[in-house]
Design a protein that fits this description.
There is one protein chain. The protein is α/β, with parallel strands linked by helices. The chain is built from four helices and ten strands. The protein has an eight-stranded mixed sheet, sandwiched between helices. Strands 2-8 form a two-stranded antiparallel sheet. α2 links the parallel β3 and β4. NADP nicotinamide-adenine-dinucleotide phosphate (NAP) binds next to β1, β2, β3, α2 and α4. NADP nicotinamide-adenine-dinucleotide phosphate binds next to β1, β2, β3, α2 and α4.
Length: about 170
């Protein structure tokens, strides 16, 4: 089972502001959906705060197994499977038959899964100082980066952005 991280961050590494995404980028949302849905059997793993930040209409994210990490044994939500630790989340994704397991944030959850991921899909949003939560620093030794595309500003995309894939060698 492939474990991949997917994130949108600004030039400073910011990913969130006041528990929300700091920008409106339709191209990034469409790519996120297409990649994480894949063949319709994929898993997404997120933190409880990121789950809380999703609009009701996107909870759970459709067509994907939704695993939410929480340290609270009491936490539950319809459409989500709770995992108390990283190994449990991976076990559940595997047991669900997922070929791809996407780590979708936020910062605390990226940190936990960084060592297990073999791909990091980054949308670099060309703006600065956008928020209050950052993507964790990571050691890029043994990682290679391939730029896939750049999307220009238009009425659906607030900032210019560049999508690239980091792969662990
Ligand atoms: N730009 C992007 O691509 C992107 C993607 C996702 C999210 N975001 C943004 O990121 C922000 C949220 O990130 P965040 O780092 O504050 O929160 P988060 O990672 O979404 O969730 C944190 C929560 O996860 C649980 N958790 C953390 N470590 C755990 C562990 N070791 N075992 C079990 N559960 C654990 C805890 O839940 P309990 O408190 O319930 O115990 C913790 O409060 C929001 O602004 C969101 O919009 C951005």
């Amino acid at each position: 089972m492939k474990i991949a991280i997917i994130v949108a961050m600004d030039e400073d590494g910011y990913i969130g502001s006041e528990q929300m995404l700091p920008w409106r980028l339709a191209s990034d949302m469409a790519r996120f959906r297409s990649l994480t849905e894949g063949d319709g059997f994929n898993t997404v793993i997120m933190g409880r705060k990121t789950w809380d930040s999703l609009p009701d209409s996107f909870r759970p994210l459709p067509g994907r197994v939704n695993i939410v990490m929480s340290r609270s044994t009491d936490w539950k939500a319809e459409g989500a499977i709770t995992a108390l630790y990283a190994g449990r989340a991976i076990e559940v994704a595997f047991a669900e038959g997922s070929e791809e397991c996407w780590i979708i944030g936020g910062s605390q959850i990226y940190e936990i899964f960084m060592d297990r991921a073999t791909e990091i899909h980054v949308t670099k949003v060309h703006t600065e100082n956008s928020g209050d939560v950052k993507f964790p620093d990571w050691d890029k030794t043994n990682w290679t980066n391939e730029v896939v595309e750049t999307v220009e500003v238009d009425s659906d995309n607030e900032f210019r952005s560049t999508y690239s894939i980091w792969t662990k060698s």
